[in-house]
């Protein structure tokens, strides 16, 4: 491919790799993206994680160069790189981070190990905003006369690529395209691909059952989204990250709702159905209107059968219509669930704001809970919060009988995970009940 040769030439000029951040290792000019990064990416894949490439750039570097002397410009570049490095160190755990300084570009590139869940996208967005805001403040303190325009973008390294090296390079170029949003670039190709998926409603929904912990009976199904089969968009992380960065997240999530209602209608499913939405979508001024329009097509489906599942990793601060829409959803009969509880700093605040009907405890709390007494104490604390709020509790990511036994003795209401069933089509899942 044409981009491969060009990208390798650029990579020849990368000089410094920080991995982990506190232990700096220097490589000679002929260093190509080889052992450290490829090994780290492969190790992350083997552990079941995803790897995101994040690019931070300064879009008006030419203007800055013209305003400074040569020595001032060198000082500016050093300060900019150092500020990025220090602030990134404050925001991201060392074990999760590969950092590359590209001295031939106008910024830095990160490789981050992340959870495989779709909702880690919102965490990446939050980290990017904090890094850019704090870096801008720090640099502006050092160079108050300069006006600096930052840009950022990210993409996930595709696991299905034949060569990890090519997958890394492709993800890096796409992340840079997202940051720069260049005309006639990868950005336009990504935007075109996502637009086609939305226009053709070309997504696949899988369903994972949610079980009653005490009786082992299926109580509900969570709908999970996949893009077109056999493409890079089949990975929901890739699909939703592109949708988010191209301004098409709202449209995509409404298609998920439409497809879910269609499947409920076609299969005659009578269980409760959980459908994921970001606060960005729920807080959209048009959401209630568009929701009513879709529900109007399926008179046989009651809002009481639908649970609107909201990831708490997106901050709801400053969303004017979010709480208004939550109240309207309740008045219509929908139930509200808060996802990923225990995974982010805003859990308790979000619960107090929403007072959800259902609290879903994140898999990070549940994983190896039978071997970690502190995690069980966290579970007990979250159960107390849930009971105070009058919420049912769903534990996510159950993968062993030992983990399930901890849930039983703590009287957790509901559970889902690979121990019980993997995601499949709703019709296939219902047929196996």
From TrEMBL:
SUPFAM superfamilies: EAL domain-like. InterPro entries: Cyclic-di-GMP_PDE-like, EAL_dom, EAL_sf. SMART domains: EAL. It comes from Robertmurraya beringensis. This is EAL domain-containing protein. Residues 187-433 form the EAL domain.
